[in-house]
Write a structure and sequence with these properties.
Layout (H helix, E strand, L loop, with lengths): L2 E4 L8 H4 L6 H17 L1 H12 L7 E2 L1 H10 L2 H19 L9 E3 L2 E9 L2 E5 L8 H14 L3 E5 L10 H10 L3 E3 L3 H10 L9 E3 L4 H10 L4 E2 L7 E6 L5 H12 L6 E6 L2 H14 L6 H11 E5 L3 H11 L3 E4 L5 H4 L7 E4 L5 H6 L25 E9 L1 H18 L2 H13 L1
Parallel strand pairs: 1-12, 5-6, 5-8, 6-7, 8-9, 10-11, 10-13, 11-12, 13-14
Antiparallel strand pairs: 2-7, 3-4, 4-15
Helix pairs in contact: 2-3, 2-8, 2-9, 3-8, 4-7, 5-6, 5-7, 6-7, 8-9, 10-11, 10-12, 16-17
Length: about 425
């Protein structure tokens, strides 16, 4: 079932055989065309693109507030309870990221503080099309609220009937999203970045999506802030002969059902486990409601990598730098210290990545496409700015003035020197 790559005895660079090429210039050109259309023609382009990609004609792009309230009120009790419990867990975890603002460092007449300020307006992207993702509403909106963002706008692709799934609207109502727009894809990113007649521009855009959404975020980065390139879902499972094959197979399928372009990779030094996982996949796949999506992901990004042992397994995992990394070998804690690049790590047989997707409290908006080498999970600080505040008394200026003058002279910046010299002469 899973394509096999045997790296036992391999002593070269794992990246040469593990790293997949990017999508090429085709998607990039398409995304740039979409962004240009939205930037130039605003709402008219959004309606045309929504008709082309989502198959529906939209007159009013923003979902009325009363529709959100109705969705929450009419949600099944078990769904509403699950959303509320997940919201509380996510909020509790992200509250720990607030940190302490206002600490003052003082020395010899110099006082240095830091202002931690939320952005004025955040844009959230929540996927649609193949499935509804109320969990992503929680994952993006809750940390924005914890950060203190006063305005939150959300974009989600509409269905063919032009409506947004009720579960998504219920989640938006539960966490107090201010504006919901039925706009998807790269055009939604462009609308939030540049603004249109209906959508006011935002300061930060966060949230996962397909390759076009991820590329669009990369294109507008610098116009707005982004958290990472959160694209198609990825999972690497490091396992050994002690691991349960059915658990591993189920976890690979869970991330694969998000659809094509993702990755589902087993890394193991047990050929017997590799065989057993293939057998478990064969047994579980016929029961899967989203079998087509799972098979598409496994065909393009599913594989088993056979290695010599735990050290080689972690070298492979770090090279892939996956969105999700599960350590389900006999002693996962022994491998945790070797993790260098991953969006989130789940340790042991009872911590599947699915818990992180929904209710454990950590964020499921994670870096993909190897950006976990330098990027982090969505967190409160993605919605905040850190501003230095400096106070200096007259005596302290006098003590620092000679150093400023010397450095300014070395750099040839006469006006820098004059800024301090004038104050020195007036003392």
């Amino acid at each position: 079932m899973l394509a096999r790559l045997d790296l036992r005895g391999f002593d070269g660079d794992p990246g040469a055989v593990l790293v997949r090429p990017d999508g090429g210039e085709g998607p990039v050109a398409a995304v740039r065309s979409i962004i240009a259309a939205v930037r130039d023609r605003g709402d008219a382009a959004l309606r045309e693109l929504t008709a082309r990609f989502d198959g529906c004609e939209i007159d009013e792009l923003r979902v009325p507030a009363e529709e959100l309230a109705t969705a929450l009120e009419e949600a099944a009790p078990e769904l509403r309870a699950a959303l509320a419990n997940a919201r509380d867990a996510i909020e509790a975890y992200h509250e720990t990221q607030r940190g302490s603002a206002g600490t003052v460092v003082e020395r010899d007449g110099v006082a240095i503080r830091e202002l931690v300020l939320p952005v004025a307006r955040a844009g959230l992207y929540v996927p649609g099309g193949r499935a509804a993702y109320p969990s992503t509403v929680l994952m993006t909106a809750v940390p924005a609220r914890v950060a203190g963002v006063p305005e939150i706008a959300l974009c989600v692709p509409p269905g063919p009937d032009g409506r947004v799934p009720a579960a998504t609207l219920a989640a938006a109502a539960l966490v107090g999203v201010d504006e919901v727009y039925r706009i998807g894809g790269a055009q939604a990113v462009a609308a939030m970045a540049y603004g249109t007649e209906s959508v006011r521009p935002v300061d930060v855009i966060v949230g996962p999506g397909n390759v076009y959404v991820a590329l669009a975020k990369r294109e507008v980065a610098g116009i707005v802030g982004i958290e990472s390139l959160a694209g198609p879902s990825e999972l690497v499972v490091v396992a050994d002969e002690a691991s349960r094959a059915d658990f591993v197979a189920a976890d690979l399928m869970a991330q694969a059902e998000h659809g094509p372009d993702g990755a589902a990779v087993l890394v193991t030094w047990s050929e017997g486990l590799a065989d057993a996982v293939d057998e478990a996949l064969d047994a579980l796949l016929p029961e899967a409601r989203r079998r087509e999506e799972i098979e598409a992901t496994l065909a393009g990004g599913g594989r088993t990598v056979l290695v010599d042992g735990p050290e080689a397994a972690m070298a492979v995992a770090n090279t892939i730098a996956p969105e999700h990394l599960q350590l389900v070998n006999a002693d996962p804690e022994s491998l945790l210290g070797s993790v260098r690049s991953a969006g989130a790590v789940f340790c042991g047989p009872w911590a599947p990545a699915v818990l992180g997707d929904y209710v454990v409290g950590v964020n499921h908006v994670l870096p993909t496409a190897r950006t976990a080498r330098f990027a982090s999970a969505l967190r409160v600080d993605h919605f905040r700015k850190h501003v230095h505040v400096v106070s200096v008394d007259e005596a302290a200026l006098g003590r620092m003035a000679p150093d400023v003058l010397a450095l300014a002279a070395a750099e040839g910046l006469d006006a820098h020197a004059r800024s301090v010299a004038l104050r020195e002469h007036r003392r």
